[in-house]
Amino acid sequence: MTHDQFKQVVDTLDTGLPQRPDVAGIRAQGRAVRRRRRGIAIASGLAAAAVVAVPLAVTAGGSGDGTPQVADDTSVSPSPTPSPDPSPTRTVDPSAYDDQSDRMTAAVKDVFPQARRTSDEFYDSMVMDGDVVDITLGDPVNWDTVFRWNQVFDVGDLALFSVSTSWNEPTPGIAWCSRGTFELESDCTMTQLDGGRLLVLHDGVRIQGQEDGVWSRYAQVVSPQSDGGLMQQVDVWATESGMTWAAAQRELPSLEDLGSIAQDERMRLPEPSSLPELPQ
Amino acid sequence: MSKPDDASFEEFVHASWPSLRQGAYALTGSVPDAEDLVQTVLVRAYARWSRVGRDNPIAYVRRSLVNAYVDTWRRRQRFREHPVDEVPEVAGPASYDVVAIDDRLDLAGRLALLSPRERTMLVMRHYFDLPEREVAEVMGCSVGTVKSTCSRALARLRIPVSTPTGEQR
Q1: How far, in Å, CA of A199 to CA of A233, rounded?
Q2: Chain B window 7-66: which residues touch A at a Cβ cutoff of 8 Å?
Q3: What sign has the CA pseudo-torsion A245, A246, A252, A258?
Q4: CA nearest neighbour of A126 among A79, A177, A66, A166
């Protein structure tokens, strides 16, 4: 068979796919991806930095209508470990990611059997999109720098349910519960887990810039610095919108459930050889 | 972050849809998988349209389609068939004729007999017209391997044409 014959035959395959694309549907999903990327970037940046001083709209003690109170500043880090020598260069076997999607989804479904995965994306690089650093997947994939894996689920009527597992630069002395991390936060607790891991549970969270009526519960597990000098983090978000915090408290999954997923070993991501370079 | 240019994106999708649809189906051999694949890369392209639309969007989307398929294949999640490194040799030229267009359904079946790697190379090189160098880069092999693999795979796609008596000529 020749080049032209192959092309001609493929062109006439009966694919069963629509003759015309659903452009509106594609655009709607594309917009959702953009929103999620921005949200994740904002949340990740804030959680990682946790030093942003934001004038708080609510004073401690709350307003009596269920509006969250602000958590006290507290600083606890995962078990401190001396900075290891840089590890020798190594490569990551792509097969290490063979069941990453399934493992993460199984961890979620064990807690929320009705969950339906709607997005499954991973990232190996960073690019500039205008003035914003965007996380992206290169062509071809650089398996040595796959540093983040995100999944989004439909869970009942929740506005958003997402899980993320990632490797990041360690941030010594970071205050995981800080009044500056979010625009609003009703409570934040930290629990030391085995293996030097730290479980952080955030309740009544509103991220800076989010519209009124959007509330989240957020669980994160942070692991101690690895021999490779990186830090593993698992984030589990549940968000409701269009309601008061009092109403959202009833609708959102419990922090115990979110924390259980965040602690699940199946959420761990193989460690990359290195983090992708920040774009100039 | 600039707002995507909806008009140019829509124009692009309509223009590229036929080749993406056919290419995705040739790769996967499955309607839902092909639909997933095309949808995924177009959604990704729209989410980055401010950047993608400025350069060469069809090259970006075709390569994304192939990469998404390769990633899926490597994660071994969605294949109906079991990938094999080597497919059985078909009979020699005396028993088979060059494919006829009317045998296109048979071609779909024969594509499924190729390994995902062979199918990917064929679609990239002979349907999307990507240069051998680029195919080699995506597949992580030499240009020579692309040449030889495509040549063997094309040969295996030759379809037997039955005579009225059921014998092959």
Answers
A1: 10
A2: 9-10, 13-14, 17-18, 21-26, 31, 34-35, 38-39, 42-51, 60, 63-64
A3: positive
A4: A166
Radius of gyration of chain B (CA): 18
How far B2 CA lies from chain A's nearest CA (Å)? 7
Q: Can you give A221-278 as a three-state secondary structure string?
A: EECCCCCCCCEEEEEEEEEECCCCHHHHHHHCCCHHHHHHHHHCHHHCCCCCCCCCCC
Q: Give the residue carrying structure tokens 């606890």.
A: A76
Q: What letter represents residue B90's amino acid?
A: V
Q: Which amino acid is at B70?
A: V
Chain B CB contacts of A10 below 8 Å: 22-23, 26, 107, 123, 127
User: Would you list the domain boundaries of chain B?
Assistant: 1-80, 82-169
Q: How far is A106 from chain B (nearest CA, A)?
A: 14
pLDDT > 70 fraction of chain B, expressed in percent and rounded: 69
Quick count: other Cβ atoms within 10 Å of Cβ A147? 22
Q: Is A60 exposed, middle or buried (0-12, 13-18, 19+ CB in 10 A)?
A: exposed
Question: What does the radius of gyration of chain A's CA atoms come to, in whole angstroms?
Answer: 21
Residues A51-88 pLDDT 10s: 222 222 222 233 333 333 334 444 444 544 444 444 44
Q: What is the H or E stretch that residue B43 is in?
A: helix B31-47
Q: What is the mean pLDDT of residues B31-43?
A: 86
Lateral strand order in the sheet of A160-168: A116-123, A148-154, A160-168, A231-240, A215-222, A198-205, A187-192
ipTM: 0.72
**A3 vs B: CB within 8 A:** yes
The contacts of residue B98 (CB under 8 Å, 6+ apart) are: A1, A5, B158
Cα–Cα distance measured from residue B162 to residue B107, given in angstroms and rounded to the nearest whole number: 14
The Cα B37–Cα B35 span in angstroms is: 5
What pTM does this model have? Answer: 0.50
Q: Shortest Cα distance from B87 to chain A (angstroms)?
A: 17
The first and second tokens of residue B49, run together, are 């349209």
CB-CB neighbors (< 8 A) of B76 in chain A: 98
| Answer CATH for B82-169 from 3.40.190.290, 1.10.10.10, 3.30.930.10, 3.40.640.10 | 1.10.10.10
CATH ID of B1-80, from 1.10.287, 1.20.1070, 2.40.33, 1.10.1740: 1.10.1740
